[in-house]
Amino acid sequence: MDHKKSMDYRKKIILAPMVRISTLPMRLLALEYGADIVFCEEIIDYKILSAKRIENNLLGTIDYVLSDETIVFRTHPKERDKLVFQLGTSDPKRAVAAAMKIEKDISAIDVNMGCPKLFSLKGGMGAALLSEPDKAKEILSALVKCLSIPVTCKIRILPTLQETLNFVKLIESTGISAVTIHGRTKEERPQHQNHNDVIKAAAQVLRIPVIANGGSKEITEFADIEKFRKETGASSVMIARAAQWNPSIFRKEGNLPLFEVIRRYIQICIDLDNMFTNTKYCVLQMMHDDMDKEEGIQSQTSATMAQLSEIWDMKGYYEAVNTKRQILKKEMERKMNS
Ligand code: FNR
Asked: Does ligand 1 have an atom closer than 6 angstroms to the CB of 156?
């Protein structure tokens, strides 16, 4: 259909949706280092439906905020053309309502059909949809029909090759633009080998682009990404844990030293007034192998953004940005009241 927007999912390197990791600062950092497309963390349809859309002029962001002021989703114009919003849903009507509410602020919608957590399964979301092909088809068909942006889906493999092939062919028939396949079943854990051969077989039978996922254990440098793509015969690659540990994995010039990456991450968090608890969580994830180092121990015990900034030699920057922001805020309030 002519009025539909499109997105090119071929030859792309993509930041995966990761709860608490793939929030705005990490997405912007991944893009800065060379990621082509970024997914936000999974957000449940109910939350978007109960949030209010606010244009945050102080930060230049668009925020979806709950009545208790929790920010459900924050985005910035810089990522507008590369941002895929991942939806958690178990119901076509709710999925469409949530997606339509947010579609003008994003480039595409992805439905999570891979999450094996009890919370998702109990709600009939995530990997529960792999055992409910009719429901999965209904949700995707409704989204494709009602939205002006591309719809995709992220799945895990099923217990047998044939079941996986049947499932991907079924969802392809809904008109989705691409499918991400994490090459593990919902029972398998990250330490299990990723089934690259199953992704390859799926890529061979599908016409839409397949995005291969699950390769982080073997991805420690940029060249490994293309190796994983070739092994899976996929069009593109999505990276989760390797990016969580060092987002500069997206740099074709090579990884940057971790401490440099963490400082840049904190700088972006300061610029965007990112929530302290989220900033600290992501820093600790990046430090995972280095937690015994002084910066790791101190970061673990930090309780405020000012403390965390000081540990990473960013205190001056933090104070300068905050002072500027306070002045701007007062100016904006004065204008509004005059
Ligand atoms: C995930 N994963 C995930 N998947 C998803 O579809 N939506 C989500 O919100 C999350 N959240 C999430 C959080 C964290 C901390 C991790 C480590 C993972 C799964 C992730 O996107 C990916 O499918 C797997 O991690 C396998 O890919 P890698 O890590 O081998 O590249």
From this structure: no
